């Protein structure tokens, strides 16, 4: 079922959902992103784009489409924290600009956090691209996340605002902010791991080479757990 044709059913009496999208120079991809975010605005979700200093007209394009855009210091963690601070929903969902939510994702999140014992979670992910190995990479990411309780930003992390604020939001790191937030949240509650899949672009995997990217990401993650500063990791990632 296409999202455009998804039923407009909402969960009555549940907290409002706010979707926070950090962006930086996304003009080329904005038409598709705007179309996607318009679906969730039509379903009464709050949508906030947080710009980190785009100079390609992204802000003007998004605002012309009627989307709310706020300015922030550059850095995904800083941008997502800034967006969260200005959102009104009880549940926050952090969406990368190149990731797309599945049909009725708002209802899925609502049901996932309906129990008082559930406070945060993430979706499974599918990496879109030509190499067949990307399907294996995505399956490994989903399994690892389910076993470890650690989520990546590509999996569209969602969290109750109260818990997000209690743990101090995203650590202001140049890289691995999603891993660091997950670790903070996991110390309080295990995540809900939804089987519905978000779709994320595999462009960076294809550009760098799938195996080369796998090795790079494992090296960076291992270095992070060993205490290497995130700024150094960000330079290596670039």
From TrEMBL:
What's an example GO cellular component term for this entry?
Answer: plasma membrane
Q: Where in the cell is it found?
A: Cell membrane
Q: Which Pfam families match?
A: Glycos_transf_2 (PF00535)
Q: Pinpoint the Glycosyltransferase 2-like domain residues.
A: 18-103
Q: Which NCBIfam families match?
A: glyco_like_mftF
- Organism of origin is Thauera terpenica 58Eu
Arranged from A to Z, the UniProt key words for this protein are: Cell membrane, Glycosyltransferase, Membrane, Transferase
Name the InterPro entries on file.
Answer: Glyco_trans_2-like (IPR001173), Nucleotide-diphossugar_trans (IPR029044), Trfase_2_rSAM/seldom_assoc (IPR026461)
Q: Which SUPFAM superfamilies match?
A: Nucleotide-diphospho-sugar transferases
Q: Which PANTHER family match?
A: GLYCOSYLTRANSFERASE (PTHR43646), GLYCOSYLTRANSFERASE 2-LIKE DOMAIN-CONTAINING PROTEIN (PTHR43646:SF2)
Q: What is this protein called?
A: Glycosyltransferase 2-like domain-containing protein
**Entry's Gene Ontology molecular function annotations:** glycosyltransferase activity
Q: What is its main location?
A: membrane
């Amino acid at each position: 079922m296409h999202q455009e044709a998804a039923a407009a059913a909402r969960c009555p009496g549940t907290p409002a959902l706010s979707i926070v999208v950090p962006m930086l120079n996304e003009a080329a991809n904005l038409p598709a992103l705007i179309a996607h975010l318009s679906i969730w605005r039509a379903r009464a979700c709050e949508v906030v784009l947080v710009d980190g200093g785009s100079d390609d007209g992204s802000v003007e394009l998004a605002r012309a489409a009627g989307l709310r855009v706020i300015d922030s210091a550059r850095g995904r963690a800083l941008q997502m924290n800034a967006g969260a601070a200005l959102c009104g929903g009880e549940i926050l969902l952090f969406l990368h600009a190149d990731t797309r939510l599945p049909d009725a994702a708002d209802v899925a999140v609502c049901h996932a956090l309906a129990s008082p014992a559930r406070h945060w979670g993430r979706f499974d992910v599918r990496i879109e691209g030509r190499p067949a190995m990307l399907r294996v990479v995505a399956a490994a990411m989903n399994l690892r996340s389910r076993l470890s309780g650690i989520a990546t930003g590509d999996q569209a992390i969602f969290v109750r605002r109260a818990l997000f604020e209690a743990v101090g939001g995203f650590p202001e790191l140049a890289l691995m902010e999603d891993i660091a937030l997950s670790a903070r949240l996991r110390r309080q509650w295990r995540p809900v791991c939804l089987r519905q899949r978000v779709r994320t672009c595999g462009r960076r995997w294809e550009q760098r080479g799938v195996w080369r990217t796998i090795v790079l990401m494992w090296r960076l993650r291992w270095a992070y757990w060993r205490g290497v500063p995130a700024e150094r990791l960000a330079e290596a990632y670039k």
